[in-house]
Design brief:
With 416 residues, this protein is an alpha+beta fold. It has 15 helices and ten strands.
C-alpha cells in the first residue's frame, strides 16, 4: 500500500476523541450511498416506464397505419392489402374499420372505439386478442351468417377489461351497441343499434385500450356502420420499428395518390419526449443529493485537517512533501466516495431488481396508463452515476487537501 493511501485509511478510523469527525464521515458515506441509490432507482423507473409503455403500445397497435387522405374509407381494399403486404420490410398487414360507438348494459353505458377486423389477420399486427382475461375470441373467426343465410341475432364482441368493469359485464352477457352512423327514416336520422354478445374480455394492462376498445367481425362492423365492403385503415407490422417512418413513406408511395400514413412514433411522439425530459430532470434533481453528500465530505475533511494540523506539521518536518499531504486528503475523500458509491450501487440495483421482479408498487391505471411501477435498471446508468458521484466528491476534496498542503510546520508546532 502506498504511503499516502495508508495514512488516508488510518485517518478514516477516528479515535474516541475524534468521534465528531467520525460521525460526520459516516454521514458523508451514507449521504453518497443514498444519493447513488436514489439515482439508480430514479433512472430505472423512468427507463422502465419508457420501455414498458413502448412495449405495450407496440404489442397493442400496428407500426404503420394507412388511411385515405379524405377519410372517406378504402375501397377495393382486398387487392390493395395483398399488394402492400408483399412490399420490402412489411411483415404483416390487416384491414380494419373504426367507428366510435356507445355500449350499454342495463343502466350502465360507456363510449368505445369499435374496430371491425378479420381475426386471423388482426393477430399478425396486434396482440390484444391474445391477452384475454376471460372468455374466448374464437367466435370472431366464425362465419358472419347462419346456415340459412340470415344474420346472427347476437354477433360476438370482445371488449377491454376496464370497459367490461365499467359496464358490469362478463363473458356471455349481451350488450347494446349504438352507432352514430344512423339510418334515415321518415322521422329523420335515427341512430342504429344492435345487440352483441360479449364472448371475450382482453387485458393488455394499457388503460387506453382496456377502457375504450372493442373488436367485432369486419362484416358485422360494415353492417352496423352502413359501410358495405369498405375499411377505414390498413395496419402494418414492419421488420424495423425504428424506421417505421421511412417504411411508412414507401407504403404511402406504393398505395398511390389519396393515401397517407402514420406510424407509432408520430402517434406517441409527445409521450416519449416527455418521458425523456423527465429522465433528465429527475437525474438533475436527485443528483442534488450527491452534491449535499459532497458538502458533507468537504466539512468532514476540513475538520479532519483542523484536527490533524499537528500531525501534518510533524509529517512535513520529517520530509514529507506538500504534494503527498495533498494526496493523503484527496485519497481520504476518494475512499469516502468509493465506499458510499459502492453501497449505493448495491442497494439501488437490489431494490430495482426487487421492484421489477415482484411488482410491489401498484399504480392507478386510469391516471398513469400502467397498473404497476416498472423498473428497468441498465448497466450504463451505473457507470454514469458512479462517474458523477466520484467526480463531485473529488471536487469537494480540493479545498481541504490544498489547505492541508499549506500547513507551516513551525507555526503549527510553535507552542508544542
Amino acid at each position: 500500500m502506498r504511503f499516502e493511501l495508508f495514512i488516508a485509511a488510518r485517518y478514516l478510523r477516528a479515535k474516541r476523541r475524534q468521534a465528531v469527525v467520525g460521525i460526520i464521515t459516516a454521514i458523508s458515506v451514507a449521504g453518497v450511498a443514498v444519493g447513488v441509490a436514489s439515482l439508480i432507482l430514479a433512472l430505472a423507473i423512468t427507463n422502465g416506464t419508457r420501455h414498458d409503455l413502448q412495449d405495450r403500445l407496440l404489442a397493442s397497435t400496428a407500426h404503420v397505419d394507412l388511411m385515405r387522405t379524405m377519410n372517406d374509407g378504402i375501397r377495393n381494399w382486398r387487392p390493395l392489402t395483398e399488394r402492400l403486404r408483399r412490399l420490402p420490410h412489411v411483415t404483416a398487414a390487416a384491414p380494419g374499420l373504426y367507428e366510435p360507438v356507445l355500449i350499454s348494459h342495463g343502466a350502465q353505458a360507456g363510449g368505445a372505439m369499435l374496430k371491425g377486423i378479420i381475426p386471423s389477420e388482426e393477430r399478425t399486427v396486434s396482440d390484444l386478442l391474445s391477452n384475454l382475461a376471460e372468455g374466448s375470441a374464437a367466435p370472431l373467426s366464425a362465419q358472419a351468417n347462419a346456415e340459412d343465410g340470415t344474420s346472427e341475432p347476437t354477433p360476438p364482441l370482445v371488449i377491454g377489461y376496464d370497459l367490461a368493469n365499467t359496464l358490469g359485464v362478463k363473458a356471455g352477457d349481451t350488450v347494446m351497441v349504438t352507432s352514430p352512423q344512423g339510418e334515415l327514416t321518415p322521422y329523420g336520422l335515427v341512430p342504429k343499434y344492435q345487440r352483441f354478445q360479449v364472448t371475450g374480455i382482453f387485458h393488455s394492462g394499457f388503460y387506453q385500450y382496456d377502457s375504450g376498445y372493442g373488436f367485432i367481425r369486419l362484416t358485422d362492423a360494415q353492417k352496423l356502420f352502413s359501410e358495405p365492403d369498405l375499411v377505414s385503415v390498413i395496419s402494418f407490422k414492419v421488420d424495423d420499428l425504428y424506421h417505421a417512418d421511412r417504411i411508412g413513406r414507401e407504403i404511402e408511395q406504393a398505395a398511390g395518390a389519396g393515401f397517407s400514413t402514420t406510424n407509432w412514433m408520430e402517434q406517441n411522439r409527445e409521450l416519449f419526449r416527455a418521458l425523456k425530459e423527465e429522465q433528465v430532470v429527475t437525474f438533475i434533481v436527485i443528483g442534488l443529493i450527491v452534491c449535499v453528500a459532497a458538502l458533507n465530505i468537504l466539512i468532514a475533511l476540513t475538520m479532519m485537517v483542523m484536527e490533524k494540523t499537528k500531525d501534518i506539521a510533524v509529517l512535513l518536518s520529517m520530509g514529507v512533501q506538500p504534494g503527498q499531504v495533498r494526496r493523503i486528503f484527496l485519497l481520504q475523500g476518494f475512499l469516502i466516495s468509493v465506499i458510499g458509491t459502492a453501497i449505493g450501487l448495491v442497494v439501488g440495483y437490489t431494490l430495482a431488481w426487487a421492484g421489477h421482479h415482484y411488482r410491489f408498487i401498484h399504480l392507478a391505471a386510469d391516471v398513469y396508463s400502467l397498473d404497476y411501477l416498472p423498473f428497468a435498471p441498465r448497466l450504463i446508468h451505473g457507470v454514469i452515476v458512479t462517474a458523477v458521484s466520484l467526480g463531485v466528491s473529488l471536487l469537494a476534496t480540493l479545498y481541504p487537501s490544498s489547505s492541508a498542503a499549506k500547513v507551516l510546520p513551525a507555526e503549527a508546532l510553535r507552542y508544542e
